[in-house]
Amino acid sequence: MEIPYTVKNRPDTGIYNAKLGVWLFLASEVMLFGGLFSAYVLLRVGAQPGHWPHGWLDVRFGTVNTILLALSAITTLLAWAACKVREFGKFKFFHGCTILLALTFLGIKSYEYHDKWIHYEIQLKDGTFADGHLEEQDDKQVVLHGRIVKDEKDLYDLRAQKDIQLGEVKIDRANIVKMQNYGPWHNTFTAIYFTLTGLHALHILGGTLVIFYLWGPGSKMYKTDPERFTNRIEVSGLFWHFVDLVWIFLFPVLYLT
Amino acid sequence: MQSNVQQFPPNRPEAAEAHSDHGHDHGHDDHGHHEHHEPGFWSKYIFSTDHKVIGIQYGLVSLSFMLFGFFLMVMMRWQIAHPGVPVPVIGPVLAALLGQPAAHGIISPELYNSFGAMHGTIMVFLGVVPLAFAAFGNYVVPLMIGAPDMTFPRINMASFHAFFLGGLVMLVSFFIPGGAAQAGWTSYSPLASTIPTDGQAFWLVGMVLLITSSLLGAVNFIATIIQLRTPGMTWMRLPFFVWAQFVTAFLLLLAFPPLEAAGLLQLMDNVAHTSFFLPTGLAVSGPVGQVSGGGSPLLWQHLFWFLGHPEVYVLILPAMGIVAEIIANNTRKPIWGYKSLVYAALVVGFLSFIVWAHHMYLTGMGQGIATFFQATTMIISIPSVVILTCMFLSLWGGSIRINTPMLFALGFLPMFGIGGLTGLPLGLAASDLYLHDTYYVIAHFHYVVAPGTIFALFAGVYFWFPKMTGRRMSEFWGRVHFWCSFTFMNLVFMPMFAQGIKGMLRRMSDGGVNYSAAKVPGVIDTLPGTVMELNTWILWAAVGLGIAQIPFIINLFWSISHGEKVKSDNPWHATTLDWQTPTPPPHGNFAHEPHVVRGPYDYSLPGEANDYTPQSETGGKSAH
After folding, report:
1. Does the distance separating the beta carbons of A5 and B4 come in below 8 Å?
2. Which residues of chain B neighbour A187 with C-beta distances below 8 Å?
3. Which of B59, B405, B422, B423 could form a disulfide with B463 if both were Cys (CB 3.0 to 4.6 A apart)?
């Protein structure tokens, strides 16, 4: 007993099973990220006036990551095309590039996460706020590389402030009311930022693992059944393009506005 | 072209070899060797990729969960009728298993809330949906469309295992400190994030697993119905059951992910202490909660009900499909208005995505939004009525054969009618303001799902049992099961309409004792004693309903080995392809690839020798 159309297209639908399956899966993924994006919209619209952060993320990192994923979309396509014309060496090269680009993306993303993790906002007893990256801390004092502001509101819109002077700020432990880093618990912006990009990063990781499998041990199938192998590259490529597309929405929504 | 249809049926090894021109692995290595040796217990029953085995796995597990969900409900009904009184017989067992929340065999209000939340969750996500969609869909859909299996057999297996794991997580949560989730099956925030139990986190993890399972299942069903229809099985020749499953699969595919998104956000709220659904200035038992605030409780409700409403149609569409098959078969005539049924099912599927906020009239989301959703809610009742009307009209002029499946199918029609019609006052914002959150709502949706969907599912079990086992279930005990269930179902749910109209609220663990004792002249209309007495009646009706299931359970297992053997592969004289297979169908289903030449309901064609003409039977005239 065999299941038909695992490799060849069904004549009247013009598609093979796995390709249809992955498109259906992507439809469901659209609804998943759609739900999260609508959560973003509702949280942002419902935020208190002046409390939605702007300019908290470094546009330079975001831009580089966007370019990396755009390039990886191209190499994925070229890898599939190489399979189509049965040039295995080119396939190996292009998908090797895809994997390297994806890993670089994840590396930059982790650096950005780390940057937020060591970024602290400290409420002081005199009503001012210290804000900056943690340099060192002990039982007596905390040293930040940052600044002190009079009003917490000054920390929200960084795009409006052109010349921010940063320097070493030493704070006595006794003066601290509350000290919190920029983790997901900091406010609804960091919460949705970590959730959206975290889920996206998991998708990147999953996609990279699949592509790595097809590039390495899974590529044995090329010798026995190149057509089916090419289909696998196409199907995993469709997923990869979707993950890239999600980032194309994430970048402006989180970094640029 | 023809080479694409290669490799069909063969259960015969020589045929498989003859067609092995694609000598590669098609992703299910065990199949090739199937004829040569019997696979072991584990690979045959636990890690099976055969759609029929997976269907039966789903069926048995979901029936067990339904029994468990029913048990939770009986415990709650005891607590409602006799608040603070130890549960007889089972009380000491509960106290031993659950400890403090069930001390002295008394169900505490917290435990009552747990049971309530888990009754809803288990019945919907672990009981009815897996039985209606996954069990019947898996077993019957590939047979009906003439396919050798589902498109992705291993994904099918993964779907069942994710479901099973999700169910286990839900069960385990009863035994953790603090107990299972207590915020209702709807898990509204901020309540769900403020009750001090990890049960909510378990609930969310369990739900993510169940959503994964339904995603894998839905992709598989849609791909199977699109790709694996046998030659000649065009769209308008699909049995209505297949159409119903097709629409249901799309609902699961597209409506579940927003709940998964919501679940991830609530998990972040509970585990990482974010504030997605926690508003600024939230106070929990006095002091302001230590959260950043800025979240929106309304957001949870929107995301939840975006799933929640299509879910209603996930519960009801497969049931309608089963009933349509059984009615056509037992009236011995084509189902009335096949095309209307198909288009109505598609319209229901589409509209079900834009009616969700009729669950939220009382949230303060605004009058304009309420008006929009009130309009769409009224519109969606039209295709639902079209479907029900087609089924009623199908009875007209038929020479009706009464047997157990038909009795349950006939019982479905008025019961679902009552459920649907009593929903209208809830869909209109003005009357919903009064009825919202009362027992009227409970009675309404239980009429849709319990005597509605579950009756259809019983009908399906009795109907396809001969195909699954080669034996019939006992007709006598089937009828006992039907008449007792029918009586007790109505005795359980009908009084709830009265209670609700009199103002009894749902989710009161004492059954309204304190509420009715509050005397505020002119402000609260206290519950009359007669309404409170109904609680006792409902308890004993519920116990009776439980006893009425005993004949079914015994009948189900006894008939597997002792039932009357069927004399042919098509004991009901049905037309659809599922009855053209050997009994029970072997791995690969069909002895020869069927070629479909006619529509699904060619009963009583003029000039034919039999009063049924199978879809694959050539010769004779076709009505389609």
Report:
1. yes
2. 275, 292, 294
3. B405
CATH class name, domain B46-277+293-579? mainly alpha
Q: What one-letter code names the amino acid at A98?
A: T
Within this chain, do residues A38 and A152 fall inside the same structural domain, yes or no?
Answer: no
Query: How far is it, in rounded angstroms, from Cα B373 to Cα B359?
Result: 9
Do A206 and A109 have their domain in common? Answer: yes
Total structural domains within chain A:
2
Residue A166: CATH number of its domain? 2.30.30.100
Confidence (pLDDT) at A152: 86
CB A79 within 8 A of CB A98: yes
User: With 0-12 CB in 10 A as exposed, 13-18 as middle and 19+ as buried, what is B574?
Assistant: buried
Q: What is the per-residue pLDDT for A153?
A: 86
Q: Do A101 and A154 sit in the same domain of this protein?
A: no
CATH code of the domain in which A65 resides:
1.20.120.80
Can you give the residue range of the structural domain that contains A76? 17-116+186-256
Cβ contact (<8 Å) for B257 and A17?
no
Domain coordinates in residue numbering, chain B: 46-277+293-579
Nearest CA in chain A to B276: A188
Q: B356 CB near a chain A CB, below 8 Å? A: no
Would you call B256 an interface residue with chain A, using a CB distance cutoff of 8 Å? yes
Q: How far apart are CA B311 and CA A123, in angstroms?
A: 47
DSSP alpha helix (H) spans, B99-173 = 109-121, 129, 136-145, 153-172
Q: Is A6 a member of any domain? A: no
Tokens encoding B62: 């979901």
Residue B9: per-residue pLDDT: 39
pLDDT given at position B33: 42
Residue A8 near chain B (CB below 8 Å): yes
Phi, psi of B612, deg, nearest 5:
-145, 145
Nearest residue on chain A to B593, alpha-carbon basis: A1
Q: Give the integer Cα–Cα distance in Å for A194 and A192.
A: 6
Window 19-58 of A: residues touching B by CB (8 A cutoff) are 20-21, 24-25, 27-29, 31-36, 38-39, 42-43, 46-48, 51
All residue ranges of chain B with pLDDT < 70 are 1-38, 286-289, 522-525, 619-624
What is the complex's ipTM, to 2 decimals?
0.95
Give the span between the Cα atoms of B384 and B571, in whole angstroms.
31
Q: Are residues A128 and A247 in the same domain?
A: no
Per CB-CB distance under 8 Å, the chain A contacts of B1 are 11
Residue-wise pLDDT tens digits, A106-136: 999 999 999 999 999 999 999 999 999 999 9
Q: Of A150, A166, A181, which residue is a domain's last?
A: A181
A192 touching chain B per CB within 8 A? yes
> Does A176 lie in the same domain as A131?
yes
CB contact under 8 A, B24 and A43: no
pLDDT in tens, B464-481: 999 999 999 999 999 999
Which of the residues in chain A have pLDDT under 70? 1
d(CA A242, CA A249) in angstroms, rounded, equals 11
Contacts of B275 in chain A (CB under 8 A): 185, 187-188, 191
Q: Which residues of A touch B220 (CB under 8 A)?
A: 21
Q: How far is B154 from chain A (nearest CA, A)?
A: 12
Same domain, A87 and A209: yes
Q: Are A195 and B26 within 8 A, CB to CB?
A: no
Q: For the full predicted model, state whether its pTM sits above 0.90.
A: yes
Contact: B220, A21; criterion CB under 8 Å: yes
Q: Which residue has the tokens 């049926």?
A: B9
On the CB side of B547, CA atoms within 13 Å amount to: 9
Is A185 in Cβ contact with B292 (below 8 Å)? yes
Domain boundary among A166, A181, A196: A181
Residue B43 has what pLDDT?
A: 81
